[in-house]
Amino acid sequence: MPHVLHIELSRNPVNAFSAEFRRQYGALFDRIVSEGRDVHAAVLSSAIPKLFTAGIDLTDAAKITTGGLHGGAKVDSARSSLASLQDIKDFHYAISAPERCPLPVIVAVHGLVFGLGIDIISACDVRYAAEGSQFSIKEVDIGLAADVGTLAYLPKITGNHSLMREMAYSAAIFSVADAERMGLISRVVPGGHTKVVAAALALAGVISGKSPIAVSGTKRILLHSRDHSIADNLEYTAAWNAAALQTQDIPEALVAVKARRAPKFAPLWNAKL
Protein backbone atom coordinates (compact mmCIF):
# COMPACT_ATOMS: atom_id res chain seq x y z
CA MET A 1 0.00 0.00 0.00
CA PRO A 2 1.66 3.28 -1.11
CA HIS A 3 2.87 5.63 1.63
CA VAL A 4 1.70 3.35 4.47
CA LEU A 5 4.22 1.85 6.89
CA HIS A 6 3.14 -1.31 8.74
CA ILE A 7 5.09 -1.82 11.96
CA GLU A 8 4.80 -5.19 13.72
CA LEU A 9 5.93 -6.02 17.25
CA SER A 10 7.72 -9.34 17.11
CA ARG A 11 9.54 -10.57 20.20
CA ASN A 12 8.59 -14.10 21.16
CA PRO A 13 6.86 -15.41 23.08
CA VAL A 14 4.66 -12.50 24.28
CA ASN A 15 6.19 -9.24 22.94
CA ALA A 16 7.60 -8.42 26.38
CA PHE A 17 9.51 -5.13 26.19
CA SER A 18 13.15 -5.35 27.22
CA ALA A 19 15.36 -2.27 27.34
CA GLU A 20 16.79 -3.02 23.90
CA PHE A 21 13.39 -3.80 22.39
CA ARG A 22 11.91 -0.49 23.53
CA ARG A 23 14.96 1.45 22.27
CA GLN A 24 14.54 -0.13 18.84
CA TYR A 25 10.81 0.61 18.95
CA GLY A 26 11.32 4.32 19.62
CA ALA A 27 14.16 4.63 17.12
CA LEU A 28 12.06 3.12 14.34
CA PHE A 29 9.50 5.93 14.49
CA ASP A 30 12.22 8.57 14.64
CA ARG A 31 13.88 7.09 11.56
CA ILE A 32 10.84 7.91 9.43
CA VAL A 33 11.85 11.56 9.62
CA SER A 34 15.61 11.20 9.93
CA GLU A 35 15.75 9.01 6.80
CA GLY A 36 13.20 11.08 4.88
CA ARG A 37 10.78 8.22 4.32
CA ASP A 38 7.78 9.03 2.09
CA VAL A 39 5.27 7.74 4.62
CA HIS A 40 1.87 9.38 5.17
CA ALA A 41 0.42 7.02 7.82
CA ALA A 42 1.61 4.10 9.94
CA VAL A 43 -0.11 1.04 11.38
CA LEU A 44 1.21 -0.62 14.54
CA SER A 45 0.24 -4.22 15.31
CA SER A 46 1.63 -7.46 16.68
CA ALA A 47 3.11 -10.23 14.57
CA ILE A 48 2.30 -12.77 17.29
CA PRO A 49 -1.12 -14.30 16.55
CA LYS A 50 -2.30 -14.72 20.16
CA LEU A 51 -1.70 -11.24 21.61
CA PHE A 52 -0.54 -7.65 21.24
CA THR A 53 1.83 -7.49 24.23
CA ALA A 54 2.08 -8.80 27.78
CA GLY A 55 3.88 -5.60 28.77
CA ILE A 56 7.34 -4.98 30.19
CA ASP A 57 9.93 -7.72 30.42
CA LEU A 58 9.85 -8.45 34.16
CA THR A 59 13.56 -9.31 34.22
CA ASP A 60 14.34 -5.80 33.00
CA ALA A 61 11.84 -4.31 35.43
CA ALA A 62 13.67 -5.97 38.32
CA LYS A 63 16.99 -4.59 37.08
CA ILE A 64 15.63 -1.05 37.05
CA THR A 65 14.48 -1.22 40.67
CA THR A 66 17.87 -2.54 41.79
CA GLY A 67 20.00 -0.26 39.60
CA GLY A 68 21.10 -3.26 37.56
CA LEU A 69 20.97 -1.37 34.28
CA HIS A 70 24.03 0.63 35.36
CA GLY A 71 26.39 -2.16 36.24
CA GLY A 72 27.24 -3.58 39.62
CA ALA A 73 28.83 -0.55 41.24
CA LYS A 74 27.36 0.39 44.60
CA VAL A 75 26.16 3.99 44.81
CA ASP A 76 24.31 5.99 47.42
CA SER A 77 20.55 6.46 47.22
CA ALA A 78 20.77 9.93 45.67
CA ARG A 79 22.87 8.67 42.77
CA SER A 80 20.68 5.62 42.40
CA SER A 81 17.60 7.85 42.22
CA LEU A 82 19.19 10.00 39.52
CA ALA A 83 20.02 6.89 37.52
CA SER A 84 16.45 5.63 37.87
CA LEU A 85 15.13 9.01 36.81
CA GLN A 86 17.13 8.83 33.59
CA ASP A 87 15.95 5.26 32.96
CA ILE A 88 12.33 6.34 33.30
CA LYS A 89 12.82 9.36 31.04
CA ASP A 90 14.48 7.16 28.41
CA PHE A 91 11.52 4.81 28.69
CA HIS A 92 9.09 7.71 28.24
CA TYR A 93 10.97 8.94 25.18
CA ALA A 94 10.84 5.55 23.47
CA ILE A 95 7.21 4.72 24.18
CA SER A 96 5.95 8.22 23.27
CA ALA A 97 7.56 7.95 19.82
CA PRO A 98 4.20 7.54 17.99
CA GLU A 99 3.04 10.90 19.35
CA ARG A 100 6.36 12.51 18.38
CA CYS A 101 6.01 11.10 14.86
CA PRO A 102 4.58 13.81 12.56
CA LEU A 103 2.14 11.46 10.84
CA PRO A 104 -0.90 9.51 12.13
CA VAL A 105 -0.20 6.19 13.84
CA ILE A 106 -3.08 3.71 13.96
CA VAL A 107 -2.71 0.83 16.38
CA ALA A 108 -4.55 -2.46 15.80
CA VAL A 109 -4.66 -4.70 18.88
CA HIS A 110 -5.86 -8.21 19.55
CA GLY A 111 -5.64 -10.67 22.41
CA LEU A 112 -3.94 -9.37 25.54
CA VAL A 113 -2.97 -5.70 25.94
CA PHE A 114 -1.44 -5.58 29.40
CA GLY A 115 0.63 -3.07 31.38
CA LEU A 116 3.01 -1.34 29.02
CA GLY A 117 0.60 -2.21 26.21
CA ILE A 118 -1.77 0.48 27.51
CA ASP A 119 1.10 3.00 27.52
CA ILE A 120 1.93 2.07 23.94
CA ILE A 121 -1.56 2.37 22.50
CA SER A 122 -2.28 5.57 24.44
CA ALA A 123 0.51 7.34 22.55
CA CYS A 124 -1.04 6.43 19.19
CA ASP A 125 -3.54 8.54 17.26
CA VAL A 126 -6.25 5.97 16.55
CA ARG A 127 -6.91 2.72 18.41
CA TYR A 128 -8.75 -0.27 16.90
CA ALA A 129 -9.29 -3.56 18.75
CA ALA A 130 -10.38 -7.01 17.64
CA GLU A 131 -13.37 -8.47 19.42
CA GLY A 132 -12.22 -10.58 22.36
CA SER A 133 -9.26 -8.30 23.16
CA GLN A 134 -8.51 -7.93 26.87
CA PHE A 135 -6.84 -5.03 28.62
CA SER A 136 -5.25 -4.40 32.01
CA ILE A 137 -3.48 -1.45 33.62
CA LYS A 138 -1.35 -3.99 35.40
CA GLU A 139 1.33 -1.98 37.19
CA VAL A 140 -0.23 -1.86 40.66
CA ASP A 141 0.02 -5.65 40.75
CA ILE A 142 3.80 -5.34 40.75
CA GLY A 143 3.81 -2.54 43.32
CA LEU A 144 4.11 0.46 41.02
CA ALA A 145 1.95 3.29 39.70
CA ALA A 146 1.92 3.11 35.90
CA ASP A 147 4.69 5.50 34.89
CA VAL A 148 5.26 5.34 31.14
CA GLY A 149 2.27 7.31 29.88
CA THR A 150 -0.95 5.53 30.86
CA LEU A 151 -1.82 7.84 33.76
CA ALA A 152 -0.85 10.92 31.74
CA TYR A 153 -2.82 10.02 28.63
CA LEU A 154 -5.96 8.31 29.92
CA PRO A 155 -7.52 11.37 31.58
CA LYS A 156 -7.02 13.19 28.25
CA ILE A 157 -8.30 10.47 25.90
CA THR A 158 -11.05 8.73 27.86
CA GLY A 159 -14.48 10.07 28.65
CA ASN A 160 -15.45 7.72 31.48
CA HIS A 161 -13.07 8.70 34.27
CA SER A 162 -14.87 6.60 36.88
CA LEU A 163 -14.37 3.41 34.87
CA MET A 164 -10.80 4.38 33.97
CA ARG A 165 -9.88 4.94 37.63
CA GLU A 166 -11.56 1.72 38.65
CA MET A 167 -9.35 -0.20 36.24
CA ALA A 168 -6.20 1.73 37.15
CA TYR A 169 -6.63 1.15 40.90
CA SER A 170 -7.64 -2.50 40.66
CA ALA A 171 -5.50 -3.82 37.77
CA ALA A 172 -8.63 -5.70 36.72
CA ILE A 173 -8.74 -7.28 33.29
CA PHE A 174 -11.35 -5.42 31.25
CA SER A 175 -13.07 -6.31 28.01
CA VAL A 176 -13.01 -4.69 24.61
CA ALA A 177 -16.55 -3.47 25.34
CA ASP A 178 -15.30 -1.70 28.48
CA ALA A 179 -12.38 -0.25 26.52
CA GLU A 180 -14.81 1.18 23.98
CA ARG A 181 -17.17 2.45 26.69
CA MET A 182 -14.22 4.13 28.39
CA GLY A 183 -13.18 5.78 25.14
CA LEU A 184 -9.82 4.02 24.99
CA ILE A 185 -10.58 2.53 21.58
CA SER A 186 -12.64 3.96 18.74
CA ARG A 187 -13.65 0.76 16.97
CA VAL A 188 -14.24 -2.90 17.81
CA VAL A 189 -13.54 -4.99 14.71
CA PRO A 190 -15.36 -8.34 14.39
CA GLY A 191 -12.89 -11.19 14.03
CA GLY A 192 -9.31 -11.54 15.18
CA HIS A 193 -5.80 -10.44 14.34
CA THR A 194 -6.12 -10.45 10.55
CA LYS A 195 -9.38 -8.50 10.49
CA VAL A 196 -8.33 -5.72 12.86
CA VAL A 197 -5.04 -5.20 11.02
CA ALA A 198 -6.93 -5.06 7.70
CA ALA A 199 -9.29 -2.42 9.13
CA ALA A 200 -6.36 -0.33 10.38
CA LEU A 201 -4.58 -0.60 7.04
CA ALA A 202 -7.76 0.45 5.24
CA LEU A 203 -7.95 3.62 7.34
CA ALA A 204 -4.24 4.26 6.77
CA GLY A 205 -4.86 3.90 3.04
CA VAL A 206 -7.55 6.57 3.13
CA ILE A 207 -5.31 8.93 5.11
CA SER A 208 -2.36 8.31 2.81
CA GLY A 209 -4.35 9.72 -0.11
CA LYS A 210 -4.74 13.10 1.61
CA SER A 211 -2.30 15.99 1.56
CA PRO A 212 0.60 15.06 3.87
CA ILE A 213 1.00 18.74 4.77
CA ALA A 214 -2.66 18.92 5.83
CA VAL A 215 -2.61 15.64 7.77
CA SER A 216 0.66 16.35 9.55
CA GLY A 217 -0.52 19.86 10.41
CA THR A 218 -3.81 18.48 11.73
CA LYS A 219 -1.94 16.13 14.06
CA ARG A 220 0.29 18.89 15.40
CA ILE A 221 -2.63 21.26 15.97
CA LEU A 222 -4.71 18.57 17.70
CA LEU A 223 -1.83 17.74 20.05
CA HIS A 224 -1.35 21.42 20.85
CA SER A 225 -5.10 21.81 21.45
CA ARG A 226 -5.11 18.96 23.98
CA ASP A 227 -2.65 20.76 26.26
CA HIS A 228 -3.57 24.44 25.72
CA SER A 229 -6.49 26.83 25.90
CA ILE A 230 -8.68 27.56 22.88
CA ALA A 231 -7.19 31.03 22.57
CA ASP A 232 -3.64 29.67 22.67
CA ASN A 233 -4.49 27.01 20.12
CA LEU A 234 -6.07 29.47 17.72
CA GLU A 235 -2.91 31.58 17.90
CA TYR A 236 -0.80 28.46 17.24
CA THR A 237 -3.06 27.42 14.35
CA ALA A 238 -2.82 30.86 12.76
CA ALA A 239 0.97 30.77 12.92
CA TRP A 240 1.10 27.21 11.63
CA ASN A 241 -1.26 27.77 8.70
CA ALA A 242 0.37 31.06 7.75
CA ALA A 243 3.26 28.88 6.63
CA ALA A 244 1.27 25.81 5.58
CA LEU A 245 -0.92 27.83 3.19
CA GLN A 246 2.15 28.20 0.96
CA THR A 247 1.96 24.49 0.08
CA GLN A 248 1.50 23.28 -3.48
CA ASP A 249 -0.82 20.59 -2.10
CA ILE A 250 -3.76 23.03 -2.19
CA PRO A 251 -3.66 23.81 -5.94
CA GLU A 252 -2.89 20.14 -6.67
CA ALA A 253 -5.94 19.02 -4.68
CA LEU A 254 -8.18 21.54 -6.46
CA VAL A 255 -6.89 20.57 -9.93
CA ALA A 256 -7.34 16.87 -9.09
CA VAL A 257 -10.97 17.42 -8.04
CA LYS A 258 -11.69 19.32 -11.25
CA ALA A 259 -9.98 16.65 -13.36
CA ARG A 260 -11.67 13.83 -11.41
CA ARG A 261 -8.39 12.13 -10.65
CA ALA A 262 -6.43 11.23 -7.53
CA PRO A 263 -4.09 14.01 -6.40
CA LYS A 264 -0.35 13.50 -6.53
CA PHE A 265 1.37 15.06 -3.54
CA ALA A 266 5.10 15.58 -3.06
CA PRO A 267 6.81 13.83 -0.12
CA LEU A 268 7.04 15.74 3.16
CA TRP A 269 10.81 15.36 3.21
CA ASN A 270 13.64 14.80 0.76
CA ALA A 271 14.89 11.23 1.00
CA LYS A 272 18.17 11.04 2.91
CA LEU A 273 19.16 7.46 2.11
TrEMBL record:
It comes from the Eukaryota. This is Delta2-dienoyl-CoA-isomerase. Pathway: Lipid metabolism; fatty acid beta-oxidation. InterPro entries: ClpP/crotonase-like_dom_sf (IPR029045), Ech1-like (IPR045002), Enoyl-CoA_hydra/iso (IPR001753), Enoyl-CoA_hydra_C (IPR014748). It holds the Pfam family ECH_1. GO terms for cellular component: mitochondrion. Belongs to the enoyl-CoA hydratase/isomerase family. Keywords: Fatty acid metabolism, Isomerase, Lipid metabolism. The keyword Lipid metabolism applies. PANTHER family: DELTA(3,5)-DELTA(2,4)-DIENOYL-COA ISOMERASE, MITOCHONDRIAL, ENOYL-COA HYDRATASE. GO terms for biological process: fatty acid metabolic process. One of its GO terms (molecular function) is delta(3,5)-delta(2,4)-dienoyl-CoA isomerase activity. CDD domains: crotonase-like (cd06558).
